[in-house]
Amino acid sequence: MRVIGGDKRGFRLSTGRRGRFRPSAERIRKSFFDFLGERVVGIRFLDCFAGSGAMGIEALSRGAEVAIFIEENEEAIKVIELNLRKCGFRDRSLILPLNYERALNELKWRDERFDILFFDPPYHRFDYLELLALVADGRLISEGGLAAFEHFHKLTLPEVVDKLIRVKLLRGGDSFISVYQLKED
Fold it and tell me: Less packed terminus of the chain by CB within 10 Å, N or C?
């Protein structure tokens, strides 16, 4: 798997032993970052369920100021660290080696906000509504920011959840990305 755009375009990323961590497919990553365009430059990016770190590294390659990676699997954390070092992004990143709920609540407690939040949980054994509810209070999203959730194409996420409204549905192979923003008051 490679970085598909920005300064590190073409850099090969590790995905662990025998590709153990399912990174977002190139097609869906391209679709997402094409949608974002120049919006990535200078932002704070959150990559939750980071796996290999491909999405956060893609954001850094395209000009994100900083990327925070949430991942609890020890092997995946080592893969993210390796990929960040290979690309020279260790100084612009932070890995939170925690369960997603604990990490998101800690970030809320610290009053951290992000311009783009990206979530790629395990497709077939995950409660997306629980995750959406955790994010839907808007406390982690900067003004004008986006929260994106990658999911299996047969799963339909709600149009509106608390303070979030879906503004875009991106398609790529068997994956969709539902993109939300905060509703206007």
Answer: C
